[in-house]
Amino acid sequence: MSLKLLPKAKMTESTLLITSHHKQDAFLDLLKERFLAVHVGKTLSNLDLNIMADNTGENISSKNKTFCELTAFYWAWKNTTSDYIGFMHYRRLFSTKNFILQKALMRMKYNFHYLRSTFVEFDINLCLKNSIELSNLADIKESIKGLELFVQNDLRNYDIVLPKKFYSKYLNVEQQYRLYHNHDDLNLLMDLVKAKYPDIGVHIKDTLKKNELYTYNMFIMKRDLFNDYCEKLFDILFEMEKMIVLQNKNDYQKRIFGFLSERFFNLYIKHINKNNTLRITELETIFLKEPNI
């Protein structure tokens, strides 16, 4: 799909909701009907998903193996102009449903594992998940319809829409990163933030010591906030890119800039809302689970 064929937003003309894709799956046809589905890393892929690609216009599609869904961020930043812009994934979407029963079951499971971790076998990774699994197509369509109504009727009451936070029982943000990734990379990110944007850097200690985090690189934002976020995010990550030796990392750890961007995003939100002046709401996240066949 060429840039000239960029469709209007599937929600409203002033709101563009993007889903990032890298492969064909059971839900692609549905999502490309409702949102702007973007093939991330298209420059590196031989697949033809018949959707918009992130290698059109001004882009960093070739960086997808290290920047992950951020190649869609960059593409949208440089090539779209909607008043609001949002990002979701091929398997994670925002939802306005409450999922009272599912959340109660998740809480019960969490409490069980907490007791087991306390008295039987300690589990340092104990966490309260922030995604509801859905595999039934009718339920997924109903959830998408609710999101459509939210965008049409309520979105303009907010500056930013965020997912519910991920909560870890025993690990704070810094400890969690150290456990799964290279801690030196996180230190470098924070050093660059303090050097380039000291007004954001003042929030580092508070953010890293918390046990909760906005994850998935999902949000809906007003355009001016998105532009400002991208300007700062890519300024820092492009500088980091010059300083990090990727050859020493396996394929998973090479997704470094996707991982680090989640931590920077939390800093950025803390910074822009330091005076509690922004209108922010949080929505549930659904995980699209392909049915067993």
UniProtKB/TrEMBL annotation:
Residues 18-271 form the DUF4422 domain. It comes from the Bacteria. It holds the Pfam family DUF4422. This is Putative exo-polysaccharide biosynthesis protein. It comes from Leptospirillum ferrooxidans (strain C2-3).
